[in-house]
Amino acid sequence: MFLPKVKLKIWEISMSETNQKITGVVITLNESSNIKECLESLKNVCDELIVVDSNSKDNTVEIAESMGAKVYKQSYLGDGPQKNFGLQYASNKWILSLDADERLTEEMIKDIKSLDLDNTTNDAYAFRRRNLIGSRWLKRCGWYPDYCTRLYNKDLTRFKDVKQHSYVDAKNVQKLKSDILHYSFKNIGELFAKPGRPFTSRGAKILYKQGKKVNAFTPVTHSVNAFIRKYFIQGGILAGIDGLTVSLSAAIYAYIKYARLLEFYRDKKVLDDTDFNDVW
User: Fold this and answer.
1) Contact by Cβ (8 Å): 241, 186
2) Is 268 helix (H, G, I), strand (E, B) or coil?
């Protein structure tokens, strides 16, 4: 994914200069435009870097190795299993997991460096996440504070073993009042392209395998509900054109996913041509 030029001051500290014993873990697939900046961000607080790459066709692996990361190849297993795969190679018990399009802010770096990880009773820490379109930070539509648990003790917890929308299944989480940056979409066009990418097909396949039943009204009702939730309940109406855009995108995504699910029940040829073993 393209990374816009945003002015953000990040401490340039080598891994050997930090007192923290943290392993940074990143999963990648064709992230050559992102991985360098992601690893540079992690270097500020991590003394070890691990990249789990699911067979990138670009030079993601070469860039990661040039940054001092240990790279392990693993075909994609789904969200939770893939993020847990690198734990077996980690030398430290504390793990900091970032996606390739995420970065630590200066405030987050300070907060992490101030933690006493050797004596804490917490098994994990959660960060606020700023989701961006281009360089624009959207504070509504459920996009902020969007707390994500990313720093955790692997001896006590890890990502839940589910293939979609996994999370760190921790019991004693402390929320830190600082942010990470998530370069979600480079522009509005990319936001609206998401429903046409494999996400809606994957979601429809999963629902079909779960036996989810639908009727002719289901795509419409889910689409309307998604718009109402984003635009009115989660405050998109207060976020100007970007709030409206994100709400419409969520509605389109919901409609296409359930329309594809309905198609499996209504069109035998489409059903027969769909490989339900190739979800991930």
Assistant:
1) no
2) helix
Residue 33 tokens read as 């435009």
122-138 tens-digit pLDDT: 999 999 999 999 999 99
* 213, 266 Cβ separation under 8 angstroms: no
Q: Count of CB atoms within 10 A of residue 102's CB?
A: 24
Phi, psi of 127 (to 5 degrees): -115, 150
CB-based contact 197:271 (threshold 8 Å): no
In terms of DSSP H, where are the helices of the chain? 35-43, 60-66, 79-85, 106-114, 188-193, 198-209, 218-228, 240-266, 268-273
* Backbone dihedral angles phi then psi of residue 197, each to the nearest 5 degrees: -85, 180
Kind of pairing, strands 94-97 and 70-73?
A: unpaired
SS (H, E, C) 53-115: ECCCCCCHHHHHHHCCCEEEECCCCCHHHHHHHHHHHCCCCEEEECCCCEEECHHHHHHHHHC
What is residue 5's predicted lDDT score, i.e. its pLDDT?
45
CA 131 to chain centre: 10
Task: Please give the Cα distance from 264 to 205 (Å, whole number).
Answer: 9
Cβ–Cβ under 8 Å, residues 148 and 129: yes
Q: CATH topology for 15-185?
A: Spore Coat Polysaccharide Biosynthesis Protein SpsA; Chain A (3.90.550)
Q: What are the domain boundaries of the chain?
A: 15-185, 188-273
Dihedral angle, C-alpha 243, 244, 245, 250, nearest 10 °? 90
Q: Directed axis angle between helix 198-209 and helix 240-266, to 10°?
A: 50
Residue with token string 């009042």: 177
pLDDT in tens, 183-239: 999 999 888 887 656 788 889 999 999 999 999 999 999 999 999 999 999 999 999
pTM of the model: 0.86
